[in-house]
Write a structure and sequence with these properties.
- Monomer.
- One of its GO terms (molecular function) is ATP binding.
- Pfam families: Arg_tRNA_synt_N, DALR_1, tRNA-synt_1d.
- It catalyses: tRNA(Arg) + L-arginine + ATP = L-arginyl-tRNA(Arg) + AMP + diphosphate.
- The protein is an alpha/beta fold.
- Among the domains are: 92 residues, Arginyl tRNA synthetase N-terminal domain (Gyrase A, domain 2), CATH 3.30.1360.70; 148 residues, Isoleucyl-tRNA Synthetase, Domain 1 (Orthogonal Bundle).
- The strands form four sheets. It has a five-stranded parallel β-sheet with strand order 7-6-5-11-12, with helices on both faces.
- Helix 5 crosses helix 13, helix 6 crosses helix 8 and helix 14 packs across helix 18.
- The longest helix has 27 residues.
């Protein structure tokens, strides 16, 4: 049940009737006709822009359209008032029975209330985290992991066929550095002093790998030339790091469907195949790039390279895919990887990158546009930095990691539920302050607590109902006399519940899961306000002594709140609280 879609359907029917009567001309496009909450709730329950968007193509004044449309809408039993405002906006007020019917719909459908089919089974690949397998995940990866996972859940909830994917960057020079760093810890395990030279990874997390290498090889690799152990240790250490990363993700509640190895692209013809696809379209050529804008580096010199005509697909400059010495650039395997996604039959691709990957956005979009002939859209979401605070000061770095705060540091301090919710309290492209003290305090200023407290309060109502012998299962509550929920504060909560299906579709359409967290906070606020009013106005309390029918009506409202909160938290990957301690 999407009440806003239903009322929009009513508006469209009225417009079609106006066409049949000759009030409106035929052939108008109604796609941009919207029904949404008004900016100011005092103006009504819903508003439509129909008259405004149709005036110009209909060659009429907006108010001429709005006046007729208002009369037709007011004739429907669901509409108590249709008022034209300003130049032609139409504000609508709905009957209380409409909002009370929302409660029954929530209780009948459970957490499927708000679930959408808008995705029509479209196959979407969401790639996120994709950290280099050179150490534990840090706090920046944590935000990307939470954002990507919540987005994947949101898309699945809205009817998409979602694949969660991790791209293992195991084909570059950084894994050689990992192997050399692990070798020093192997030497340490054999009683020698490790030589952690500049550029190697200093974290203590490599100590267990060194010990595992000793167990496997004894001291047989000591003093052997690098050429004899580099590849073996690279594979061994990479596998160990991926096991560590999988454990980190599991601690956060993240499970991937696919782990794709960059290394699998090399020596298999996949990079060549991707570039041939571009070459066949006339998008690969040999050329010399212009020097960088601004001050030219002293060591810059023009070199002929193999270039991709990315400018033909929206990029600022063409991009090299092969260096003058014949080796691949970093961009080449990225093209091949996305070509693989396209050939796997995905209808849309989403990449979640860290803030430092902003320069990749245009080139990757250009590559996917070229590879798919514009048929597969790529949306790239950048997650901005997270600043950690504790005791009013920046949180210190992790010794175990060597030079950064790990995902485990965060989860061990506050738990996965708090971590996930807080990471979604800002839009992905805005920086986020994560204060370890504030995210655990019990106040309205802490959105995690505020939402969880609302759910826990409903659970306490249900427990009290059971103690009083009041039947409060969802089926019984859905069939209760819900007309008793007629106080403005009760209707405010019901109206907020009615927004949930619409919110889901907007959040999924824009790939913005933070909207769910924002909505839950607002819903919790409306519920807490109602609860607090009940302290002074006894008729608003959820359990009315000696009046089972009224109690069930009030409990139905509270239970509907918990159902929607549970559905929203499920999308965010957070477990609803049964009680607060």
């Amino acid at each position: 049940m999407n009440l806003f879609s239903e009322i929009r359907g009513l508006v469209l029917d009225a417009l079609a009737q106006m066409q049949s009567e000759g009030t409106l001309p035929e052939g108008l496009n109604f796609d941009n006709v919207a029904v949404e909450p008004p900016r100011d709730a005092a103006h009504g329950d819903m508003a439509t822009n129909a008259a405004m968007v149709l005036a110009k193509p209909a060659k009429m004044k907006p108010r001429e359209i709005a006046d007729v449309l208002a009369g037709k809408l007011a004739a429907d039993d669901r509409i108590t008032n249709a008022e034209v405002a300003g130049p032609g906006f139409l504000n609508l007020r709905l009957a209380p029975t409409v909002w009370q019917g929302v409660l029954a719909a929530v209780l009948e459908k459970g957490t499927d209330y708000g679930r959408s089919t808008m995705g029509h089974g479209q196959k979407v690949n969401v790639e996120y985290v994709s950290a280099n397998p050179t150490g534990p995940l840090h706090v920046g990866h944590t935000r990307g992991a939470v954002f990507g996972d919540a987005l994947a859940s949101l898309l699945a909830y809205s009817g998409h066929d979602v694949t969660r994917e991790y791209y293992i960057n195991d084909g570059g020079a950084q894994v050689d550095v990992l192997a050399r760093s692990a070798y020093e810890r192997y030497r340490e395990a054999n009683g020698l002093s490790p030589e952690i030279a500049e550029g190697l990874y200093p974290g203590d997390y490599l100590i267990p790998i060194g010990e595992a290498l000793k167990e496997k090889y004894g001291d047989s690799l000591i003093d052997k030339p690098e050429s004899e152990w580099l590849e073996e240790l690279r594979n061994f250490a990479t596998d160990a790091m991926m096991d560590l990363i999988r454990d980190d993700l599991k601690a956060l509640g993240v499970e991937m469907d696919v782990f794709f190895s960059e290394k699998s692209l090399y020596g298999t013809g996949k990079i060549e195949a991707a570039l041939k696809s571009l070459s066949d379209k006339g998008l690969i050529y040999e050329g010399v790039l212009e020097p960088p804008k601004g001050k030219k580096p002293e060591d810059w010199e023009p070199r002929e390279q193999t270039l991709f005509k990315s400018t033909e697909h929206g990029d600022d400059v063409d991009r090299p895919v092969k260096k003058s010495d014949g080796s691949w650039t970093y961009f080449a395997p990225d093209i091949a990887y996305h070509y693989d996604k396209v050939t796997r039959g995905f209808d849309a691709l989403i990449d979640v990158f860290g803030a430092d990957h902003g320069g990749y956005v245009k080139r990757m979009k250009a590559a996917v546009s070229a590879l798919s002939d514009g048929k597969v859209p790529l949306d790239i979401k950048l997650t901005q930095l997270v600043k950690l605070w504790k005791n009013g000061e920046p949180f210190k770095m992790s010794k175990r990691a060597g030079n950064f705060v790990t995902l485990r540091d965060v989860v061990d301090h506050v738990g996965p539920d708090v971590t996930r919710f807080v990471m979604l309290t800002r839009k992905n492209d805005a920086s986020l302050d994560f204060d370890f003290d504030k995210v655990l305090e019990q106040s309205r200023e802490n959105p995690v607590f505020y939402v969880q407290y609302a759910h826990a309060r409903v659970m306490s109502v249900l427990r009290r109902a059971a103690e009083a012998g009041i039947a409060a299962d969802d089926a019984t509550l859905a069939s209760a006399d819900l007309s008793k929920n007629d106080h403005p504060s009760e209707l405010t909560v019901a109206k907020k519940l009615a927004e949930w299906p619409r919110l889901v579709e907007i959040a999924a359409r824009t790939n913005e899961p933070h909207r769910v967290a924002f909505y839950l906070y607002e819903l919790a606020g409306d519920f807490h306000a109602l609860w607090n009013k009940g302290n002074d106005e006894t008729q608003l309390r959820f359990i009315q002594d000696g009046d089972v029918a009224t109690s069930q009506s009030k409990i139905a409202l509270a239970r509907a709140v918990s159902v929607v909160i549970s559905a929203g938290l499920g999308i965010l990957g957070v477990t609803p609280a049964q009680e607060m301690r």
